[in-house]
Amino acid sequence: MTETMITFPNLVETVGMLAGLLTTTAFRPQAFKFRHGKPARGVSLMMFACFCTGIALNVINGFTPGAFPVILANVLTLCIAAAILVFKTRYG
After folding, report:
1. Which residue range forms the structural domain that includes residue 61?
2. Around Cβ 46, how many Cβ atoms within 10 Å?
3. Is residue 6 a part of any domain in this protein?
4. Is 23 helix (H, G, I), strand (E, B) or coil?
5. pLDDT confidence of residue 89
6. DSSP annotation string for 32-87
7. How far apart are CA 85 and CA 50, in angstroms?
8. Is there a domain that residue 31 lies in?
9. Could you tell me the CATH number of the domain that includes residue 74?
10. What pLDDT score was predicted for residue 25?
């Protein structure tokens, strides 16, 4: 008979999840501001293009054993940053 154990994330995974949560939520206010048609003049198009590229590369890099928090955080951050990039090109 096999026992099912509940395992808790180790410290590294916990820190990774917290880092992902913070970096992902940091962009939400900006994205919502642009979504509602606010001017995007203060945002650098080049910075967000480079940032989105770097996040996409981090997603690819995250496909290693035990790197699920890295993948999840970067996918969510990429979605928000890409939305800001779209709003910048549309409203900037």
Report:
1. 12-91
2. 7
3. no
4. helix
5. 82
6. HHHHTT---TTS-HHHHHHHHHHHHHHHHHT-STT-HHHHHHHHHHHHHHHHHHHH
7. 10
8. yes
9. 1.20.1280.290
10. 81
